Amino acid sequence: MTDILIAEATKQGLWAILYITLYFYTLREGRRQQTISATREDNLRAEASVLRKEGIEREAKLTDFINNMAEQFERLATQYEIMAADVQEIRIDLERKVNRTELK
């Protein structure tokens, strides 16, 4: 079909040849740009998929870290409560001893 168009264009003159040549160039360039765009789009999709997976992994690690920190904080709070109770007992014992020594 291209050969027929070129043969007819040569009969019509120089401008027809230039028009047909530009037409075929435009078609070929459009296909080439489509291929390039499709390849670029596939690459971007693959990269987005990798980044999404990395984000999910990072989120899981941060969630684990936060959960571990919460557990450690709970342990520290429990230890603090125990220490506060012990200190209170020591104060009471000291006050009793001081009161006994003052009474004597």
UniProtKB/TrEMBL annotation:
Membrane-spanning ranges: 12-27
InterPro entries in alphabetical order: Phage_BhlA/UviB (IPR024405)
Keywords: Membrane, Transmembrane, Transmembrane helix
Protein name: BhlA holin family protein
Protein source organism: Sporolactobacillus nakayamae
